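Schema walk-through. Below, the input block comes first and the output block second. Nothing else is stored per chain. Lengths vary across the set, and this one has 333 residues.
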Amino acid sequence: MSKPTRPNISVPAEFAVQGQKADFNEDKILNGFKSNEPDVLSGENFNKFIDDTYKGLNYALDLGDYVNNKLLNKTQISNCILEAPNGVITYSGNTVTLKAGLKVLIPQGRNADGTLRNVEYTLENDITTTVESNRNENACVVLSTTGGVWLWTTAGVGSYEIAPATNLYYRYFDEDLNYFRETTNGGAYHNSNVAVVAIINVTNGNVNSILTAFQPIRLFTSADKSYIASMGMPSNKYINLTIGASGTKYTAPANGYYNICRFTNGQNDQYVDLVNKTTGFFVSLQKDTVGVIRLYAPVRKRDVLQVNYTATGSGEFDFFRFYYAQGSESEAN
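--- output ---
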């Protein structure tokens, strides 16, 4: 849809409080109000008041639809469910049911200008699928643009920007293409027009529980400001790394921070450099006395960091870690 045009609304704000003929001036009359009416809430003035009020209301509704449409087509979201008036999913024994009215957003590639192309799909009626008796696993419940519903093994589903080897994964979400992709019997990947709506736990074909039933998306509000402010800060999840020889390079697995601690023995020119070879950002510290050098360097996913040092490291004062940034794709796992 095209951007709505702001209407020309001539209702003076003070009419809501005063609304008397004495407040009419030439500008108000020229804007459409009648000078021969006693106030704004009677006769032709009342009709104009109502007309202008509805113009403003309709403009607000149209603008909301426009912004919502632009959001859905330009913003990558992880939760595909837009509406669920009757709930998302129920189960009984080996039968899984997706509920009527469920509206999902299904990724379907990109537009010519590079923006995301996402398609809305709404279930008109309840739809069911039967779990095979030999299934013993956690499984993704997926819905297609044709109204089909089936199960994907979660162990075979990933999210990548580069296609994984077909012998490791046979379904994944391609963040660059904006498509779910799958392969059959290790063949070439092809696009699949689906959305994942839930994850269930299955034993011998019977559903034990719904591990995750994705809920309708929502926008951030002012109440989320503390959470938003924490995004990108170091989380409490980290991985210990083995430091190589001076000059070794490391590729960041996600957005986060490299943190290093090295012991200095009092010799001259004991130093540590952390150099981001991708961006050029670097930090460095030198010590000529016995002590400790502690440094950290922020990185983006796939940035290459080079570590140069002469500080030798010893015991508890010797570690090299990668801390995931708050909100990074691996921080919550």
